Amino acid sequence: MAALWDGVVETIRQAPPRQAVIDMTKVSRVDGAGLAMLAEISRIIAAGGGTLRLEGAPAEAGRIVDQIAASALPPARQPVGAIEQIGCGVIGAANHLGDLVEFTGAVAISSRAALRAPGSVRWRDVLSIAARTGFDAVAVTCLLGFIIGFIIAFQTLPSFQTYGAGNMVAVVIGVAMVRELGPLITGVVLAGRSGSAFAAELGTMTVTNEIDALRTFGLDPVRFLVIPRMLAAMVTTPLLSLFCTFLGVLGGYAVLAGTGMSGAYFVQEVQSAIGVMDLLQGMVKAGVFALLVAGAGCASGLQTGAGPGAVGESATRAVVAGIVLVILSDGVMGWLFFLMGI
Prior knowledge:
The protein is an all-alpha fold.
């Protein structure tokens, strides 16, 4: 059969006829391989615009061949115009916005229920998730903070020394790390590390129908899975932001120490530039970043589709959405704090 397949099928593939007739009047039995070969011949001829006719074949065999050939044919792709593409994009954006509004409402309802009955929150899960999202991320967050502070001091010191204001580098580092870069770096790390993890976990549960099983047993997936993750992120992210800020300031001093600046003078300059409201501003930003990143990761996980690459797509979507939300919200909060005079 293999030799017959290679000989006949390859010959037809090289030069597909417009019309072909196969005489099966003397064929008493056709196995699965024979039907598959006939279906492949029919598919090749049909793809070239021709037709195949089986003479003397049982009606059942002809029907099976037609079904196999039809299932093997790839779906014809119709050309899509610009207007249709725009319409599909608008519909997709509207559906995504609707899912986002629905998820936000579900989170608000579950949060209110958790505030009314704190005992209903799975605090053991909150602590476990906090350990994964917070404690395990201390090293990378502190390392990035130290490097950013070091780079800022290294790049700005020559310019300030030109005007005899080298001591102002300590002020710049303190303000930049406390108000802006500490929370921002932590938020980006959270989006790349924890946001993708939340999306992958919930996406896997969605693909394996565990989310549907929770709903079957009367358990709200948002209250059961999303709220603990958001609480854990909101608890650990401000602490990570403090670590990142401290290491960033320390990285700046590592450069200034080489110029002969004492540690006491450096601390004095930093303290003169920042206050309680600056620290509070950084903590508020970190808390908002945690809320947005955890929400984006959980929403992407719950919206995971079918297919082998669905979980990976959800994780990628969570990371991108988390970073975009962090940067956008940072700009909005910076503008609001400026209007408030903070």
